[in-house]
Amino acid sequence: MNITTSIKPESILANCTVLNPLDDAYINHPIIQHFGSPSQPIYVDQCNVEINGLSYEQPLILPIVNGELKLIQCAVIQDRQLIQIMPDGLAKGFAYYGDLHQDKPVIVTHSLEAFFKIASSIAIGFEPPLQPFAVVLVILPHLEHTNRTTLKPCDFEQIQFVINQLSQASYTQIYMPTRAEHRKLKPYQNLEQNTAVCLLSQTMQYGDKAFHIDLNRDEDDAEVQAFIHEAISQLPKQGDHWGELLPLTQAESAINTPYPIHALPPLAREAVLAIAEYVQAPIAMAAQCVIGAMSHIAQAHVNAPHPFNAQGEPCSLYLLTEGQSGSRKSTSRNMADKAIIQYERKQYEQYRRDLEQWKSGQASLNKKDREAYCAENPSPHDPSTLYSDITLESIAGLYVDGILNNASIASDEAGQFFGGYTMKGDTRTQAIGGYAKLFDDGFVERTRSKSNLNGSGRAYDVRLVSGSVKMTP
């Protein structure tokens, strides 16, 4: 059976078989054999299905919920096979086992084996005074790989997205087990500093001895449960110490506000993820580049809706992206603009041939015949629409002269844009006004004296994307 990622999660679960831990089919399921048992019921699709050209044989199905515990998606998991999220392709929530209570501990993990092991420890019950907890799984694309420990920037953004979902739903005790060597890494420190999560060290000190727990399938359930309670109890209590003082005003950053990639259409979202994965760039960087490319393509054909104008308004965007040196600014933009660049290259090659033909057509003509030839055969125009270093005055001239009606200014270095002639002190204010007018209604005007070779004129309904300008702080 071939199914698409648009199928509703309720329909997926309705067609599944619920297997219990004592069932032979449960015990022998490849996922359980590989990752261990959660000692909890599981959903299994008993059919062989094909999704996006990949075959799945009796896959395990994990329900995905949002912060309000509403079913929104399903994860289709088969051992050593790419995980499929249905619908939409990108997880917008999390899977969980146990009873989620806003005033009880919630253990967050991104490992399927750890998720199942903690779930199994929940299944044995909690003896007083031990406090019940639940476990939440962040669905990452490489979830099926048991031994993967290196997380990418997009993985941390997905983990933060889930933590923020829980925090916004008023869960107050959010913890994530972390290996001791990982706690020293900046991404983990940022996660703990900028979200509601507390990291639980998987190595604890008792006297002069250190004890480590891997949260793998071979760990004893009771020991896992005891570890979690002990790790939580060893955390500093609120008010026990001041901690490092923070400035009253903190700069906004991508870790504080995750880029809303889930709001993009599926095709654009997949392009962002592919670029970020391929060039190892931050999700926000790749997304800005893709959105800039989309705006460039769309602005010549459609308008954005406007509540008070039936004809809409320009869908052009002005985008500014800050990135450290070496953050793959240029590579990300080149990949996002690849189709545009290839198209313009073909157009430019045709333009060069047409220009050579136009020049050769008048080469042997006298002045009078040349003037007649040029009047009947106007010079071909350069079809380029992507610019990295052009003044507002120059691009306005191209609009007014009818050579352009759709263009983009995109630079890999902000200094090239902000340090250019247009943005210098004596012309900056006028330039900003010109850019704002273009952005607002697609209007540009050029006023010149009669003696000026470049005459006065206006252009309406022209479009300009000023995008993917990258700053290196």
Automatic annotation (TrEMBL):
<dbReference type="InterPro" id="IPR025048">
    <property type="entry name" value="DUF3987"/>
</dbReference>
<dbReference type="Pfam" id="PF13148">
    <property type="entry name" value="DUF3987"/>
</dbReference>
<protein>
    <submittedName>
        <fullName>DUF3987 domain-containing protein</fullName>
    </submittedName>
</protein>
